[in-house]
Amino acid sequence: MKEKISEFLKSKSFYITFSIFLAIGAWLMVVSSQNPKESRSIEVPITFVNSQILEENDLVDNSATTLPTTVTVKVSGSEAFVDRLQPSDLYVEVDYSQITGPGNVTLEIKEPVCDTLGVYVDSYYPMTIECVYDKTVERYIDVEVDWNEDVTASGISIVSAVAEPSNILVTGYSMDVDRIASVKVNLADMGSKISKSGSVSLSCHFYDKNGAEITRDFAGEKVVVRYTTGKIVPVKYNLIGAPADGYYVVSHLPSVTSVTLTGDAEVINDISSVNLSNISIQGSNKNFTKGVNISDFLPKGVSAVGVSQVDISINISKYATKTVAISQDKLKKTGENTGYLYEYVLSDNNLQIKGTESALGRVTDTSISYSIDVTKLGEGTHKNVKVTFELQEGVTMDNIVTCDVKVTPLATPGENQPQPTEPAEPLE
How would you label 68-94 residue by residue, b for 16+ Cβ within 10 Å and e otherwise? Predict the structure, then answer.
């Protein structure tokens, strides 16, 4: 190896090559000394390569602004070279292979290349290009039908509503079409109350994934909506019989209070309610549920939408009891004769009452009013005279309270002395 290097250094080729380099170096030193260093900005056209990728992927430029076609390049070097520099002496490239599909793209501008000896690229602007590339797509989207009961006349309900066609073809840029999360038509757009089955042509509304309407960004699409109506009627029934002694019905409730009827319109028009069978509570002392097949109570050709059975829940509870103190002092007396002395003795100083828990909770010894009428009682002792009690709603007596009344004249009855004319009525 050393022998080859030694042989080359002694060869004529080495001296020729070395002489050339010395000459170039000397020339550069002369030029540099006679031409000071200078900086300059120059507009260089951009060369776009691999543009066939756009066509192969059906992509189009959908940017909001026009893409730049030149780059401002700042160069520096010897004055003589920089002054003679032309845009064609530099090369700036953007490679479209950076684009992989529709969307926002940041294209990188490669660093400018200058082949002129003694000229250097200091900087360039812009270094990137922001752009949007998209393509036209087609997509079928299902159409939903929306409505609420505000669109129907009183007593009418919409049983079903379907769009024809059930989906629509949307054509546009993929980024726009991909924004569509749902397409709907609303029967409220009819502008009038629906009273019977029919059809209507309605415009579609477009919504994004957040529920915001974006209809303005798409061409108007219309579909025909065919809707079926039904008549809303109440469900009725009767409770018959009485619960077991000491029990009462707390509440009763059907699983549905109304149903929507469909079928023969003429027959339905004459139906104002669905009257179910009587529900017997005779002798019941616990809760129970009675299931009733609603079709058994509908005319032929009429059906209830979504309801085959009505379950009626009966809540039965035992009466609660309560003891309330009473006294002669609070007994109200009517019909006393001023010529007589009256003495009263109640048969019981406690009143037993029964009722619901809530009703008994409102009863106190001061909230009960009780009275006795002695208008027809003459002289003597009267046993078991009726005492009348005024009780709150939902409360009844659970025992009988009477009163013994002794009537004594204050003086010997005179000619003008009033006296009772009828005997007392004993309490049965």
Answer: eeebebebebbbebbeebeeebbebbb
Burial of residue 183, with CB atoms counted within 10 A of its CB: 0-12 exposed, 13-18 middle, 19 or more buried? buried
**Which tokens go with 128?**
């990137």
* Nearest Cα residue to 405 out of 355, 356, 334: 334
Q: What are phi and psi of 242, to 5 degrees?
A: -135, 145
CA distance linking residue 165 with residue 221, whole number of Å:
11
Q: Rounded distance, CA 403 to CA 384, Å?
A: 5
- Structure-block tokens of residue 96: 């479209």
User: How big is the chain by its Cα radius of gyration, in Å?
Assistant: 53
Distance, CA of 337 to CA of 420 (rounded, Å): 8
Q: Is the dihedral of CA 100, 101, 106, 111 positive or negative?
A: positive
Question: In the Cβ-directed half-sphere of 55, how many Cα atoms lie within 13 Å?
Answer: 4
Residue 65 corresponds to which amino acid? T
Mean pLDDT of all residues in the chain?
Answer: 88
Reported as a pLDDT band with limits 50, 70 and 90, residue 364 is confident
Predicted TM-score of the model (pTM): 0.58
- Residue pair 368/326 in contact (Cβ under 8 Å)? The answer is yes
Residue 153 is encoded by which pair of tokens? 């006349």
* Residue 241, C-beta contacts closer than 8 angstroms, at least 6 positions apart: 280, 281, 282, 283
**Tell me, what's the pLDDT at 128?**
95
